[in-house]
Amino acid sequence: xxxxxxxVLIIGGGFGGLFCARRLARTDVDVTxxxxxxxxxxxxxxxxxxxxxxxxxxxxxxxxxxxxRRPNIRTxxxxxxxxxxxxxxxxxxxxxxxxxxxxYDVLVLAAGMRQSxxxxxxxxxxxxxxxxxDDALEIRQRVLTAFEIAESLPPGxxxxxxxxxxxxxxxxxxxxxxxxIREMATRTLANEFxxxxxxxxxxxLFDGGQRVLKSFAPKLAQKATDTLRExxxxxxxxxxxxxxxxxxxxxxxxxxxxxxDFATRTALWTAGVEAVPFARHVASTLGATTxxxxxxxxxxxLTVTGxxxxxxxxxxxxxxxxxxxxxxxxxGGLYAAACVRRDLSGRPRxxxxxxDLGSAAYISHRNALLQVGPLRVAGSLGWLAWGLIHxxxxxxxxxxxxxxxxxxxxxxxxxxxxRAFLLGGADRPEQRYxxxxxxxxxxxxxxxxxxxx
Length: 453
Description:
EC number: 1.6.5.9
Number of helices: 12
Radius of gyration: 23 Å
CATH architecture of the largest domain: 3-Layer(bba) Sandwich
Domain FAD/NAD(P)-binding: 7-333
GO molecular function, one term: NADH dehydrogenase (quinone) (non-electrogenic) activity
Family: Belongs to the NADH dehydrogenase family.
Oligomer: single chain
CATH topology of the largest domain: FAD/NAD(P)-binding domain
Catalytic activity: a quinone + NADH + H(+) = a quinol + NAD(+)
Strand content: 15-25%
């Protein structure tokens, strides 16, 4: 009789899932990666895609291509929806709403976080987040369309609202988006219109704190603030965006002052994150403790108490204030794979230790911030270091080469060569295949025809 190899199921093909699978490529296990898009996305560069600097292909790669020469690794398209810890199975949903079941001996939950609207889910209709390729393409379409619509309008309040862009959240993503939109208006589009002056576009940045980039050193954050102001970004601190509608946002001061409305046809949301529904379902099923954002409390080896076979890594791991950054996900993925290898060889697991590799934020062309330990770099040098670091982490040689080419070209020019966007058509029905909006609090029983894998 042949010995059945252990089955490792990885939920999520982001940094954590990718690095875990890579480390297990030559291990005596069978690995399945379940991902709702079947691609790895270099999420830190999403805003570059949204604002036309990079294409989809520069920041994403099919997982099937990544592991084509790794016979012990397979990729499945689907969204995890139900965990059965007793049977060691996960039920997943295909885009056409049929289901299948996957068995596991080891489960690695690396599904990441999603945009949080703090209970105001209706905001999403008018203020997309920045977590997926769909988000990036929607933002590109909204931003570029706003300028196009303004071009056909006469001067007045309506045109002004189309040329006003509101960004909620002063973290790295909000700062990067605000800077890029303003740079696009003042440089890329400056000489392309006849009726409007894109340079007059307003970019409003709202944050509940007293400065941007709270995770950075105060001096670096101040440099970012100065750069944003030079670009023309209008910053409003100590406020929360409390309502988002089709043509305006409402902003309320934290100190209880009067609310204020801002007329805008383009609102973007980067103000918070929360666990994906499956992560909350896993925590509920296993009786695990979670924080307000849904991060799952884990032990020193990143496993759920009482379930040494279930790892939670990356943004979802609630331990020692681990940061929600790519480096933590990568290190967590490598660590989980190391634990699997140690288990196979009968060696004890070591506690997980996160090594801080620093933080970076892109503000504008030739202007970025880099913070690594005591090292603080800003301006052109920070921009150069930012680019080299991001390119070094890109997945696959093909992605690196093409991105290096694009990035080097952007040093010589300020152009944005990926500004195409889709508007759809009234004569086309809605997409046939889509993931359903299932409720993680309810038993998952309405799926058609499950198949065991």
